[in-house]
Amino acid sequence: MIDDLRAIAIFAKVAEAGSFSAAGRALKLSTSVVSHHVKALETRLGVSLLHRSTRALSLTDDGQRLLESAQRMVAAAEEGLDAIADISGDPSGTLRITTPAFLTNSPQEGAIWQFASNYPNVKVTLDSSDARVNLVAEGFDMAIRLGQLPDSGLRSRKIGTFERRLVATPAFLKTIDAPTDPQSLAGCNFVLLGMLSDKFALQRGGEEVTVQLEKSRVSVNLVAAARSAVLAGLGMQRLPLSVVAADLETGRLVEVLPEWSLPPVNIYAVWPASSHRNSLVRLLLDYLAKV
Length: 291
Known about the structure:
The chain is α/β, with parallel strands linked by helices. It has 3 domains: 85 residues, Orthogonal Bundle (Arc Repressor Mutant, subunit A), CATH 1.10.10.10; 92 residues, Periplasmic binding protein-like II (D-Maltodextrin-Binding Protein, domain 2, 3-Layer(aba) Sandwich); 100 residues, 3-Layer(aba) Sandwich (D-Maltodextrin-Binding Protein, domain 2), CATH 3.40.190.10. 40% of the residues lie in helices and 26% in strands. It has 10 helices and 14 strands. Strands 4-3-5-14-6 form a 5-stranded mixed beta sheet, covered by helices on one side. A 3-stranded antiparallel beta sheet has the order 12-7-13.
C-alpha cells in the first residue's frame, strides 16, 4: 500500500508538471525513478495512465480519473502536514522563490530578507530573473509576478502596485517628429521588452487610448537592458518609475507625453496550490502584504 501511495503521489506530480523530467526536478528524484514508479503503477492497475510521445505527455481517460483522486489524496496529506507546521513555534524548511530582476533592492525583496532574518531555520533561495518560469516544473514554491495573470492552477494574492513612465532621451526625441498624442506613438521606434505586450494603454482624465506599436529594431529580455538601450538613444519604452527615477531627475531621460499616464501595474505573489510548503508560503505572504 505504501508503494502504491508513493507512486500515486509521483503520478500526480507528473500530470501537474507535464513531464517526467520536470516532476523529477520538483521531487528531487531522477527521471528514471519517476518513470519507474509510474510504470509500476500502470502495471499494478493494468491500464495506461499516460499517452507518451517525444513532445509531451497527456492523460488517458483512466489517468484523468485517477488524477482526481490522487490530487485529493495529496491535498489531504499536505493539509495534515501544514496543520502540524502551523503549530510549530520554530518554522523550518526550504523556500525557493523567483522574482523579476528589476525588483532587486525593492520593498518586496526587503520583505523576503526580513522573513529570512526572523526565521533562521528556513533556508531561502531567491532567483531573480525577468524570464517567467514554470513554478511546478522548476521546483519553485513562490513567484512574484506582474500585471495580468494568465488562467492557471496557481493561487495568487495581490501584494502591491508600481508606477511606470514612458521615457526616452532628449537626443532621441530630436531625431523624430515629437509625438503629440498617443496615436502618434505607433510609428515611433520602441525598445521592445520581452515581458511586455506591443499594445498598451494611456490614460488622461476619464479618457483611455490603446497604442499598438509598429516599429522596433532592438529587443531585450531584461528591464535593465531596456533602460540601457533607451539611454543609448535607440528608442522609447515604458519602464518602472523605480528604475528610471534618477534618470528623470538628472535629465538623462525625459517623460514622453507627460500629460498622459500609464495605468499602475499590480504585483502578485503566486504559488502552486499543491505545494507542500504552504505553511511557509503563508508566513512569507504576511511579510509581503505589509510592504
